[in-house]
Amino acid sequence: MTITFQDFNLSSDLMKAINRMGFEEATPIQAQTIPLGLSNKDVIGQAQTGTGKTAAFGIPLVEKINPESPNIQAIVIAPTRELAIQVSEELYKIGQDKRAKVLPIYGGQDIGRQIRALKKNPNIIVGTPGRLLDHINRRTIRLNNVNTVVMDEADEMLNMGFIDDIESILSNVPSEHQTLLFSATMPAPIKRIAERFMTEPEHVKVKAKEMTVSNIQQFYLEVQERKKFDTLTRLLDIQSPELAIVFGRTKRRVDELAEALNLRGYAAEGIHGDLTQAKRMVALRKFKEGAIEVLVATDVAARGLDISGVTHVYNFDVPQDPESYVHRIGRTGRAGKTGMAMTFITPREKSMLRAIEQTTKRKMDRMKEPTLDEALEGQQQVTVERLRTTISENNLNFYMTAAAELLEDHDAVTVVAAAIKMATKEPDDTPVRLTDEAPMVSKRYKNQRSSKRRDGQGGGYRGGKGKSNNRSSYDKKRSNDRRSSGSGDRRQKKSY
């Protein structure tokens, strides 16, 4: 049954904003969450980015705000600056006619400016955990009148090491309040927070089949690490994406990829947690405006980005878990459009492929590595289409004389072939050196192997007293990257 926003009996101010935003039918997460939110029920929502969850918690949150009150009445805790900004922008749009005042608070922004903005009595604060806690400790934010708390992407905040900060923030909120917690997965520490700070929460779960992957063509390419970059550039030449996102596992990888793509003639920029907020916003604006054709990003930097028009997603490195895969490919295939997602799998990462397919309940199609000839043919087709478009625009009078002179000396096919050759971006084989990344192995597969070792079935078992530290230096570095990326709040982690 289709549920529209009219069915929620919202105030006229909210309906004006919703109509202006173009919302009509409620998504599954909205249809289930909004009535519970309006009834002051605590809610645990399991949903991915791209399912409409911001409006799902934002509409009941704004509906209950009293814009005449000088107090902070609601807080939204988000893992990254980008997500905090995006959520605050959407809440502003929802609350525009009600005149609800929304303020984003995040690290990397001048704290004095934030303190001045807080003195203007915002109704809703959207913030990253570290900076929120900083203001609470400075007593520049007081939460004693908060009646609604939202935790967005709680599992990502756990991954980034913010769980203690969240508990400290929640301990400053009155015991009588509504909590809405959203998380793609439900690890034990998130369950403990729910048990401690929530009252008989209602569970809302968007099933995997309802996630935005049904209209995305999913492929994998089995390719050796050293051949990945040439494979990527040939795919870009063949597929000619309008807007593409390339995902790398680490900040170093993103920097190297963006530089290498530019070296070979592609307009590319990278975003990750070590960039200043200003630089990231500039890169995103260029991408949205089409000034750059390829955005290279880490998982954390791309979390919550609302970018329309992405036609292709390339997983240059396999994501660290299947849930991250769904987040990544959800950047394309939005608003009813189709998209393509290509994942590069090295021979040692086959277990990750199986884990992803089990999570999405869908097989990926194998794509063969493209050849140099196919890349050149793809670029020729782009040129031919541009020529056809130019001919159809019929704005060629100024060039007819030069064309006629050429045809006096050469046949038409030779002239057209020369024009296609001149206008075609031929595949570039400029040497590129990327730092190798260790292969990613499915956690499930790792657990199976480690249990075999404990049972004495695997290689390397040295008896009961032997100690094993299976966490490689690479894994430790990767953990640091995930903790440091995207928040910039209070942690200064090692960059790599």
TrEMBL record:
<feature type="region of interest" description="Disordered">
    <location>
        <begin position="429"/>
        <end position="496"/>
    </location>
</feature>
<dbReference type="InterPro" id="IPR050547">
    <property type="entry name" value="DEAD_box_RNA_helicases"/>
</dbReference>
<comment type="function">
    <text>DEAD-box RNA helicase possibly involved in RNA degradation. Unwinds dsRNA in both 5'- and 3'-directions, has RNA-dependent ATPase activity.</text>
</comment>
<dbReference type="InterPro" id="IPR001650">
    <property type="entry name" value="Helicase_C-like"/>
</dbReference>
<keyword id="KW-0694">RNA-binding</keyword>
<dbReference type="InterPro" id="IPR044742">
    <property type="entry name" value="DEAD/DEAH_RhlB"/>
</dbReference>
<keyword id="KW-0347">Helicase</keyword>
<feature type="compositionally biased region" description="Basic residues">
    <location>
        <begin position="443"/>
        <end position="452"/>
    </location>
</feature>
<dbReference type="InterPro" id="IPR014014">
    <property type="entry name" value="RNA_helicase_DEAD_Q_motif"/>
</dbReference>
<dbReference type="GO" id="GO:0003724">
    <property type="term" value="F:RNA helicase activity"/>
</dbReference>
<keyword id="KW-0547">Nucleotide-binding</keyword>
<dbReference type="GO" id="GO:0005524">
    <property type="term" value="F:ATP binding"/>
</dbReference>
<dbReference type="GO" id="GO:0005840">
    <property type="term" value="C:ribosome"/>
</dbReference>
<keyword id="KW-0067">ATP-binding</keyword>
<feature type="compositionally biased region" description="Basic and acidic residues">
    <location>
        <begin position="473"/>
        <end position="490"/>
    </location>
</feature>
<dbReference type="InterPro" id="IPR030880">
    <property type="entry name" value="DEAD_helicase_CshA"/>
</dbReference>
<keyword id="KW-0346">Stress response</keyword>
<keyword id="KW-0963">Cytoplasm</keyword>
<keyword id="KW-0378">Hydrolase</keyword>
<comment type="subunit">
    <text>Oligomerizes, may be a member of the RNA degradosome.</text>
</comment>
<dbReference type="GO" id="GO:0009409">
    <property type="term" value="P:response to cold"/>
</dbReference>
<dbReference type="GO" id="GO:0005829">
    <property type="term" value="C:cytosol"/>
</dbReference>
<dbReference type="InterPro" id="IPR011545">
    <property type="entry name" value="DEAD/DEAH_box_helicase_dom"/>
</dbReference>
<dbReference type="Pfam" id="PF00270">
    <property type="entry name" value="DEAD"/>
</dbReference>
<dbReference type="InterPro" id="IPR027417">
    <property type="entry name" value="P-loop_NTPase"/>
</dbReference>
<dbReference type="GO" id="GO:0016787">
    <property type="term" value="F:hydrolase activity"/>
</dbReference>
<comment type="similarity">
    <text>Belongs to the DEAD box helicase family. CshA subfamily.</text>
</comment>
<dbReference type="Pfam" id="PF00271">
    <property type="entry name" value="Helicase_C"/>
</dbReference>
<dbReference type="InterPro" id="IPR014001">
    <property type="entry name" value="Helicase_ATP-bd"/>
</dbReference>
<dbReference type="InterPro" id="IPR000629">
    <property type="entry name" value="RNA-helicase_DEAD-box_CS"/>
</dbReference>
<dbReference type="GO" id="GO:0033592">
    <property type="term" value="F:RNA strand annealing activity"/>
</dbReference>
<dbReference type="GO" id="GO:0006401">
    <property type="term" value="P:RNA catabolic process"/>
</dbReference>
<protein>
    <recommendedName>
        <fullName>DEAD-box ATP-dependent RNA helicase CshA</fullName>
        <ecNumber>3.6.4.13</ecNumber>
    </recommendedName>
</protein>
